[in-house]
Prior knowledge:
Layout: H1 3-14, H2 22-53, H3 75-78, H4 88-106, H5 114-125, E1 129-133, H6 137-142, E2 147-151, H7 161-169, E3 176-179, H8 185-193, E4 198-202, H9 208-221, E5 224-229, H10 232-239, E6 246-250, E7 272-275, H11 281-289, E8 294-297, H12 299-302, H13 307-315
Parallel strand pairs: 1-2, 1-8, 2-3, 3-4, 4-5, 5-6, 6-7, 7-8
Indole-3-glycerol phosphate (IGP) binds near residues 228, 252, 254, 276 and 277.
Amino acid sequence: MNLHTLNRFSVRVQQPESKVGSATVLAVREEEANALQVKEWEVGMLQNELAASQGIRIRRRPPTGPPLHYVGPFEFHVQNEGGTPRNILEEIIWHKDMEVSQKSLENAPPSRDFIAALREANLKTGLPGLIAEVEIAQAYERGGAACLSVLTDEKFFKGSFENLEAIRKAGVKCPLLCKEFVMDSWQIYYARIKGADAILLIAAVLPDLDIRYMVKICKMLGLAALVEVHDEREMDRVLGIEGIELIGINNRNLETFEVDISNTSFLKESEVVGESGLFTPDDIAYVQEAGVKAVLVGESIVKQSDPGKGITGLFGKDISL
Length: 321
Ligand SMILES: O=P(O)(O)OC[C@@H](O)[C@@H](O)c1c[nH]c2ccccc12
């Protein structure tokens, strides 16, 4: 693969958006879906081509073929229409490729329904379902959290995937949100393997096409995707992406880390999580009034010595009953 191919790929995605009309919208969708397939395929091709440049003749994956409209420069694909292995070693490797990606997932604990847990808690208490950002996981569960959020970023948030795994293995029943800064789909697989039931996708860092692709991967793995937005522009972008079930509005501006809970006002979806900067029953009432059905809370509970009391203080009542 060369730069020319990559450039052409991005031009193909953007080009039709300048036109108007519903037929064009459909064409754009089709074009995007096509681009998605092209992307997956090109990654595989890139690996094959890199290997070929080093004299490795075994292709790691079957060239399943580019999408219909694709006119690419990959001659070796054209010579191998049908995707049959060229020799025994290649057949073994193609099988191994599938086996390896399946294996680690097989060992993953089953995924639990993150969104259902939030809905149930909301119905039960009449208050937003709580996703508690944890330190002592069990205490939060006892205190009435519907779901837990586990930080996995090591450098900036002192979290880890090991911690996520440990919490899952400790037998916590609340579904777990992996609070990671996802840039690449391997992080999603890794989160699932470590026991996550949901994962955060931040719209401020991921282009629409990546979100679409990653949401698909999440669905395939049984993970809920919490797609986080910070402003109206991101909200509108995300609302235009198919298949998104849970949107979070972060009240914290991730560029300045300042918090403003009136950020929740541009809420346009019913299934929204209000995130950050919530400290008092008034704050909860404020975002609930705006239509929030679940909240993601860290600091205000973490800073209390007793998470149960912290939760009761935040909601103004005991929600563990
Ligand atoms: O500690 P708080 O203000 O209650 O916030 C929790 C959570 O919303 C916040 O940690 C968060 C949500 N999404 C993020 C993305 C990056 C950094 C931090 C966040």
